[in-house]
Design goal:
The complex is a heterodimer of chains A (about 450) and B (about 425). Chain A has about 450 residues and is α/β, with parallel strands linked by helices. Helix content of chain A is about 35%, strand content about 20%. In chain A, helix 16 links the parallel strand 10 and strand 11. In chain A, helix 4 runs antiparallel to helix 5 and helix 10 packs parallel to helix 17. The longest helix of chain A has 21 residues. In chain B, about 30% of the residues lie in helices and about 20% in strands. Chain B contains twelve helices and 22 strands. Bound molecules: flavin-adenine dinucleotide, flavin mononucleotide and iron/sulfur cluster (SF4) (3 copies).
Chain lengths: ~450, ~425
């Protein structure tokens, strides 16, 4: 069988230098001042606006848009940061088409929502260009809080706690803070090292220190920090990508999509990053789309995303699917992998798929199969929580169980972001979790004796 | 077949659209371009006395009010009358009139309030064979400081005196251009009537400061750290101009005098509105200065199309048609009851009607129904003011519906089909007993 599979073609430098630069530049060019005025003018300043309800962090959208319109972009940004200190990142990465913009009354009126995300970017860019974060820190309290994980959840929590005067130490396993904003989000959504500038912006409030390269469960234990600190917040994200559970997963060229994207995000020279000529992405979420699109942008010739269910069940929004398709990614629905086939010795050569059908909500193979040539296969069928060093914490559906204040089963431990059960796995949701937890921790610290 | 040829105080033009006296009519070059573009006539930029020409400022002359997308809603200016030699203007006027005999060419004039000054200029204008003159009693800046322009237009006795001189010393028809910078437009209009003017034209620009530069703390436009009030014009002044035209048209003492309507006219519809309120023709300045002379094409076509659809063959068929319907408040029918109604299929649930009525009017719109976001008018609270219609962003979504029978749930009173106004209302201490 292996004989009719052609030899593996993984290479780097498919494109010219300018092409890499163009491909990985801003997905949406920022609005000019005039464009921002015109767009801001489209907002009706709705009463009890539906967009605000749809924003997980509850940003006062009509207010910030009006502030743009009245020529006060700095005030506008402050309105945003009051509810969402990572408003700059969210302006770039939020799937607005399924959040605020989906319910904008202009969407109902004419199918063209106010470009809330782009206006948010206009205001926050304007502010962050030459200002530190806008909030004053309260008089230092004597309380200390440990935050584990410097992703969006951890940063948001730390900022809010610092604003109340508490001292915060963030323990971060990686070399750089930012979590998936730094290692995961598609490169063209956050150009110019934005994740790191945003971390600097958040920390400029003072009272927060980061200890990098410190991993919970390896470098320290939960008991140790619970003893040293008055409260703990866990913003651990998710650990690793789910396996396909098929033979051949060890073949060279079968890659964890999140890891690959992380390499891409950290690459100094994209032309040195190897990518296959024929790429197959298995999965239907944002990670799958990002892996597929970025492979194309790196120069892969044929990129096919294969998702086991139908279009409507896909986690990636219509907008994301369109983005993939306009970037030349082919999407095949209702097919699941059955075999990873070796090409050259030790390398992946092709994947065999079987079409599926839904039977009473249950997915079943139809028996009909097809093959796709593959020099690289990306696994993007979801991640799961690993949770090193969190044995004392109760889980639910494999992730940390929390109450509405994001408190875990331990009285002094809160958690938020991708690591908790029932979340949306979005940056903006992580920010809200961190904020809600910080408010609860602050209450707890105020009421705690001593 | 619709005919939009116009005859205004004996002056013929192929359509009722004239350019007002202003920069677009300052010299032959512009006027010829305007005629080529289709304008029916022009009032030449105001001429002054012979002698050394006037000087204008050499800095900015305009201050603007922008709407969305930098749409010009209005601007003001601090420009004076023509700054070109009288001789040159007169020569060009003569040549243009000779070359364009079918177009109206009226000359705007402003000289000091001395009879001889008017005698001198009138003689020279007559030589050009222009169709008529317009007396600029309106310029509100600069010239007024020298006792001309609105300094004359604000004193009815002067208007009457100068108008009379002009009627005495020329055979040309005389149009008196009125300033809106007065408290009651009927007085200067009556002065023009008493001076035997052939027509009035209005409005000239409105005294204004368009904005303040908050860094420099100076009014706009700013010249070397200072600014001066200027004359405001453009779409924003239209409502003021329309009312002034209507006031003259429905006042028995002035209703007979022909009116040339000016002020914010930008479209055929604006023009039709001025004419419905009694203007025999219209003059345009800001629309041309914003979009160029080509705007007249849509004015001409639009007016014709509307007349055709409405069954009007000639301009006279609709000129003044709305005048009888302009009434004093006291004669409005108090038995006419309306209620706002929301078309739920069109409603996009922005909530603007709700918050407007709730915060600032009569608490007559619901916010929710069965826990859901839902906007609906409560007839028992609605006074029929139509604020909600005004603020609703969706056309025809909110409408005012007349109640013709039954009981008004707000007052619990039966609908009275009879007309009744304030003059006979029981609450009016000065009511007329019937
Ligand atoms: C490829 C990809 C694309 C995405 N695109 C989008 C998008 O476009 N828009 C969007 O809204 N969301 C997107 N997401 C989701 C979004 O990135 C996450 O929801 C968000 O980052 C979650 O924030 P978090 O703080 O919970 O976790 P993370 O961002 O994962 O941060 C967790 C942090 O904790 C650290 N950590 C983990 N374990 C330990 C430990 N034991 N000890 C110490 N530190 C630890 C990690 O190193 C990391 O820095 C994407 C995700 C992926 C994978
Ligand atoms: C720059 C400028 C200069 C003007 N100069 C004169 C003038 O010399 N004589 C005059 O009678 N009116 C003058 N006007 C007033 C216009 O003729 C016209 O009455 C006024 O602009 C209102 O019409 P609009 O809203 O169409 O512009 C001037 C207007 C502008 C904008
Ligand atoms: S729903 Fe749309 S129009 Fe209404 S306030 Fe929000 S952004 Fe503005
Ligand atoms: S017409 Fe006036 S009172 Fe009636 S609902 Fe509308 S705003 Fe309220
Ligand atoms: S203003 Fe108009 S569109 Fe908006 S809620 Fe009211 S009726 Fe509906």
């Amino acid at each position: 069988m292996a004989s009719d599979i052609k030899s593996s073609e993984i290479a780097s430098g498919w494109l010219k230098a300018e092409e890499y630069a163009a491909n990985f530049s801003d997905l949406h060019a920022p609005l000019s001042t005039h464009e921002a005025y015109v767009e801001a003018d489209r907002c009706y300043f709705c009463y009890d606006a539906p967009c605000v309800t749809a924003c997980p962090t509850g940003i006062d959208i009509p207010k910030f848009i009006r502030q743009i319109q009245t020529g006060n972009p700095l005030g506008s940004a402050k309105t945003i940061f009051e509810q969402n200190i990572l408003g700059g990142m969210c302006a770039r990465v939020c799937p607005t088409e399924t959040l605020c913009e989906e319910v904008c009354v202009r969407e109902e009126a004419e199918g063209k929502p106010v470009k809330i995300g782009q206006l948010q970017r206009y205001a926050t860019d304007h502010y962050m260009r030459d200002h530190d974060q806008p909030f004053a820190r309260a008089e230092p309290t004597s309380k200390k809080v440990a935050v584990v994980g410097a992703g969006p959840a951890g940063l948001s929590c730390a900022h809010r706690l610092a604003s109340y005067g508490h001292e915060v130490v963030i323990f971060e396993a990686a070399d750089k803070p930012g979590g998936l904003s730094e290692y995961g989000i598609a490169a063209y959504k956050t150009v110019d090292d934005f994740a790191q500038s945003e971390v600097g912006f958040v920390l400029s409030i003072g009272g927060i220190s980061i200890e990098k390269g410190k991993k919970l469960g390896i470098d320290f234990s939960l008991d140790e920090i619970r003893a040293r600190f008055d409260a703990v917040f866990l913003g651990l994200g998710m650990g690793s990508v789910n396996n396909l559970g098929l033979p051949g997963e060890k073949l060279s060229g079968v890659v964890d999509a999140v890891e690959y994207i992380s390499d891409l995000r950290q690459a100094d020279d994209l032309s040195a990053l190897p990518v296959g000529r024929n790429v197959v992405v298995i999965g239907g979420g944002m990670t799958a789309v990002d892996a597929a699109v970025q492979s194309r942008l790196l120069g892969a010739e044929n990129v096919t995303m294969v998702y086991r269910r139908g279009k409507d069940a896909m986690n990636a929004s219509d907008y994301e699917q369109q983005l993939a398709q306009t970037r030349g990614v082919k999407i095949i629905f209702s097919a699941q992998p059955v075999q990873l086939i070796e090409g050259d010795a030790g390398n992946i050569g092709a994947v065999e798929f079987e079409y599926t059908s839904q039977d009473n909500g249950k997915l079943a193979g139809t028996g009909e199969t097809f093959m796709l040539d593959a020099d690289m296969v990306f696994k993007a069928i979801g991640q799961h929580f690993v949770g090193d060093g969190t044995d004392a914490i109760a889980l639910k559906a494999g992730r940390i169980e929390v109450d509405e204040n994001r408190r875990s089963n331990l009285e002094d431990v809160w958690a938020g972001g991708d690591c908790i059960a029932g979340g949306e796995d979005l940056t903006v949701a992580a920010v809200e979790d961190g904020k809600v937890a910080a408010e609860a921790i602050n209450q707890y610290l105020k009421s705690e004796r001593g | 077949m619709v005919d939009i040829r116009s005859e205004f105080i004996g002056i013929k033009s192929p359509n009722p659209f004239w350019l007002a006296s202003a920069p677009p009519t300052d010299k032959a070059y512009n006027v010829v371009r305007a005629f080529k573009a289709g304008w029916g006539g022009v009032v030449w930029k105001t001429l002054g006395e012979d002698g050394p020409p006037l000087v204008n400022v050499n800095g900015p002359r305009y201050g603007v009010v922008h709407g969305p997308d930098r749409r010009v809603l209005g601007f003001n200016n601090i420009e004076l009358i023509t700054d070109r030699p009288l001789e040159v203007n007169l020569r060009e006027i003569k040549q243009v009139k000779r070359d364009w005999p079918d177009r109206a060419l009226v000359v705007s004039l402003m000289v000091p309030c001395e009879e001889q000054a008017w005698i001198d200029i009138l003689a020279r204008v007559e030589e050009t064979e222009a169709d008529g003159i317009e007396l600029n009693f309106g310029c509100p800046h600069g010239m007024s400081e020298r006792g001309m322009g609105s300094a004359v237009g604000q004193v009815p006795e002067y208007i009457e005196m100068v108008t009379r001189w002009c009627k005495m010393h020329t055979r040309m028809p005389v149009i008196v251009k009125l300033t809106p910078n007065i408290t009651d437009i009927r007085f200067p209009a009556l002065a023009a009537v008493n001076g035997n003017a052939d027509a009035v034209s209005l409005i000239n620009t409105i005294n204004s400061i368009t904005s303040v530069d908050l860094d420099l703390m100076t009014p706009e436009p700013t010249i070397d750290g200072k600014g001066s009030h200027g004359g405001f014009c453009g779409p924003a002044v239209k409502p003021i101009a329309l009312n002034m035209v209507a006031e003259i048209a429905r006042n028995p003492e002035t209703s007979a005098i022909p009116i040339s309507g000016i002020g914010g006219i930008t479209t055929w519809r604006d023009a039709a509105e001025f004419m419905a309120l009694g203007a025999g023709n219209v003059q345009v300045c800001t629309a041309a200065m914003t979009y160029g002379f080509k705007v007249v094409e849509d004015m001409i076509d639009g007016l014709k199309d509307w007349m055709e659809q409405s069954g009007y063959d000639r301009l006279d068929d609709f000129i003044g048609r709305a005048v009888p319907n302009v009434s004093d408040w006291q004669y409005l029918n108090l038995n006419y009851i309306t209620k706002a109604k929301i078309d739920q299929d069109l409603c996009i649930k922005c909530g603007r009607c709700f918050i407007a009525c709730e915060d600032t009017s009569h608490q007559a719109i619901t916010e929710t129904k069965g826990g859901e976001r839902h906007f609906e008018v409560l007839d028992e609270e609605c006074v029929g003011c139509n604020l909600c219609v005004t603020v609703c962003p969706v056309e025809n979504c909110l409408t005012m519906e007349q109640m013709t029978s039954g009981v008004d749930p707000r007052t619990d009173e039966a609908i009275n089909p009879e007309y009744a106004n304030w003059t006979t209302h029981p609450n009016n201490p000065a009511r007329i007993e019937s």
